[in-house]
Write a structure and sequence with these properties.
This protein is α/β, with parallel strands linked by helices. It has two domains: 134 residues, Lyase, Ornithine Decarboxylase, Chain A, domain 1 (Beta Barrel), CATH 2.40.37.10; 213 residues, Alanine racemase (TIM Barrel). The chain contains eleven helices and 20 strands. Strands 1, 12, 13, 14, 16, 17, 19 and 20 form an eight-stranded mixed beta sheet that branches. Strand 5, helix 6 and strand 6 form a beta-alpha-beta unit. Helix 2 packs parallel to helix 3 and helix 5 packs across helix 6. The radius of gyration is 23 Å and the shape is elongated. Bound molecules: pyridoxal-5'-phosphate. The site of pyridoxal-5'-phosphate has 15 residues, from helix 10.
Length: 397
């Protein structure tokens, strides 16, 4: 089976940079990102917007996103220090399982705005760190609840046995222990249960989280000031033109806010914010026909762009023709479907399979689209000791 990947508009700045770089490169289109996040912001009136830094910690991207978002969600001491250095003053939420005592102390010292606490034991350790610093930590209890059918999120992290968040009984135990935890102020509930949800499913899931949180607070006579319903907004790698419908999402989510809750509704998307503004640029090094199938061996590979291997999809791509050809022998070319692979010595190093991408020649540039989230930063860049990709910001803002 072959796939025709729909054309994705490539800006002149991205194409120019792709032709300029000498090896594989990440090209981040900051002008595109600026417009994209501004559009998300305009469509999410009534919601507080955090950005999940784990999607892409590139400082250039974070600076643009932070201009539009209410704050950033970090999930490790490393991300915390990185964000403090590159985006000083950004309001921070600190989440993630397995926080160490050193990370909690660093977060307290950095003046983190909200702590997403994942277990009773973590709550006690945070109480100690905050008490030692003479501050009170504002906490959202991260819960792992079942919200019923979420509509087929591709990555389910909640409502099933998982290391993320706490079961409702443990959340009950946390509240019961609050009199003994004077440095903790529980201001709300947090849940991130799945990724890859469309607007309707994501809003329904958020509504169920809001309902659960409101009921939880009522039962415990807890003043519920905030609910963070997480991220997980879909990015359709097979249908790049189908963007997450932020307006529909926020309208539906806000319509599901239960009576009795008039606090802040917060979201923390990652992928759907930065995915579209990143490109992975490569060149066709070799083109071969093997047992009836064409392969384009591209500079770099899944050790730079792990996303297609991690998610099991074909990375959308555009071939940019390069006319100059200086070798004395003829240039190899094909118009048939091509499988685009990298330079690694493993059959798993596949970026896109059997793609009808038009004519492909050795020396042409291949621009892999939607490479701005969970791409370079989740990749095993040292495997085989190839050079790391260059990172360039284009369309600077
Ligand atoms: C706690 C938490 N919040 C937010 C996100 C961002 O999710 P996404 O990038 O799917 O929007 C994640 C991703 O794993 C997460 O674990």
């Amino acid at each position: 089976m072959t796939t025709t990947i729909p054309a994705i508009p490539v800006t002149e700045a991205v194409t120019r940079a792709a032709l300029e770089v000498s090896g594989p490169a990440y090209l981040y289109d900051l002008a595109h990102l600026d417009a994209h996040v501004a559009a998300i912001r305009a469509r999410t009136t009534g919601l507080e917007l955090l950005h999940a830094v784990k999607a892409n910690p590139d400082p250039g991207l974070l600076k643009v996103i932070a201009r539009h978002a209410d704050g950033l969600e970090v999930a490790s001491g490393g991300e915390l220090a990185h964000v403090r250095e590159h985006v000083p003053g950004a309001l921070l939420a600190f989440g993630g399982p397995g926080k160490t005592d050193a990370e909690l102390a660093a977060a307290v010292a950095a003046g983190v705005h909200r702590y997403h606490v994942e277990s009773f034991s973590e709550l006690r350790r945070l109480n100690r760190a905050a008490a030692e610093a003479g501050v009170v930590a504002s906490v959202l209890l991260r819960v792992n609840i079942s919200t019923g059918d979420t509509g087929g999120g591709v990555l389910t992290m909640g409502g099933v046995p998982s290391p993320f968040g706490m079961d409702p009984v443990e959340a009950d135990a946390c509240v019961a222990a609050l009199p003994d935890l004077p440095a903790i102020d529980v201001v709300g509930v947090h849940a991130h249960l799945a990724s890859g949800l469309d607007a309707e499913a994501c809003a329904a899931q958020g509504g169920a989280i809001l309902l659960w949180a409101t009921e939880f607070a009522r039962r415990h006579r807890l003043g519920l000031r905030e609910v963070n319903v997480g991220g997980g907004m879909s990015v359709e790698y097979g249908r790049p033109a189908e963007l997450f419908d932020w307006q529909k999402y926020s309208r539906q989510l806000l319509s599901l806010v239960p009576q009795g809750f008039d606090g802040v509704v917060r979201v923390e998307p990652g992928r759907a914010v930065s995915a579209y503004s990143g490109w992975y640029a490569s060149r066709v090094l070799d083109l071969k026909r093997s047992h009836g199938e064409w392969f384009a061996v591209c500079a770099g590979g899944t050790h730079h762009l792990r996303t297609p291997a991690a998610k099991g999809h074909d990375q959308p791509l555009v071939v940019v023709p390069v006319e100059s050809w200086t070798e004395p022998w003829p240039r190899r070319a094909t118009e048939e479907a091509v499988t685009f692979v990298g330079q690694l010595c493993t059959p798993k190093d596949v970026l896109a399979r059997r793609i009808e991408a038009g004519p492909v020649r050795v020396g042409d540039v291949v621009l892999f689209a939607m490479a701005g989230a969970y791409a370079y930063n989740i990749s095993h860049s040292d495997f085989l000791m190839h050079p790391r990709p260059e990172v360039r910001h284009v369309g600077a803002r």
